[in-house]
Amino acid sequence: MDPLAPRPALLRDLGRQAYAPVWHGMQRFTDLRDGGSTDEVWVVEHDPVFTLGQAGKPEHVLVPGDIPVLHVDRGGQVTYHGPGQIVVYPLLDLKRLKIGVREYVCRIEQAVIDTLAEWNIGAQRREGAPGVYVNDAKVAALGIRVRRGCTFHGLAFNAAMDLEPFGRINPCGYAGLQVTSVLDLGGPSSMDAMKPVLLDAIAAQFGLALQASPPPDLADPHPVPVAPPSSTQAA
């Protein structure tokens, strides 16, 4: 394969799903993959849930009410997932990409910044607080895990959602942190308009040729071997 050519990766749109089956599917995929497995990018919209990272402190969950709380194996503190949020799980082999964890995070953030620029929304990183911000309000959160050099978990991008549940927590462990959405910032109201722009930006950051593929069997998400060069196509 031409080292400058985009690397094939399977794009799997899972639609709307409960959190736990997708989480466990990512774990199994990562445990089963090897150096010959094709990278994948999963995109999903979750049912309402609060998730606490590995070092997450329960006191950051203030008043969960009827929304379940799950303690999961990603980095970071507490965040909310729900309808109207685009969640992207890049399942990438960092060794094959020849990048480290810090650069991986920076590239994900840059993909979000580039996406928002499509609608003339200026966004920034914040030192020591991963994610993407607009006027001090967080529009995208990152929580990742790397196992044997391979990533899972990922990015939560507030597209067009009800932000009320964020008031029930200290988002990402910061009391009083403001949260916003692309819709509230003047962007499009449709997730379908935002999703391809975000996925194209992620693909560009990692040199991936995304190939639309069926959703994974979450009960048994076996990794797929890397396709031979003759069968790859640029997205």
- Give the structural class: alpha/beta
Strand-and-helix sequence, N→C? EHEEEEEHHEEEHE
Count of alpha and pi helical runs: 4
- Sheet of most strands: 7 strands, mixed
Question: Whole-Å distance between the termini?
Answer: 16 Å
Number of separate domains: 1
CATH class: Alpha Beta
Strand content: 25-35%
Could you describe the 3D structure shown?
The structure is a single chain. The protein has 235 residues and is an alpha/beta fold. It has a single domain, classed as BirA Bifunctional Protein, domain 2 (2-Layer Sandwich). 22% of the residues lie in helices and 28% in strands. The chain is built from four helices and ten strands. The chain has helices spanning 19-32, 94-97, 101-117, 191-206; strands spanning 7-17, 39-46, 49-52, 69-71, 78-81, 85-91, 132-134, 137-147, 150-158, 208-213. The strands form two sheets. The chain has a seven-stranded mixed beta sheet with strand order 7-8-9-6-2-1-10, sandwiched between helices. Helix 3 crosses helix 4. The chain is globular and about 45 Å long. Residues 227-235 have low confidence and may be disordered.
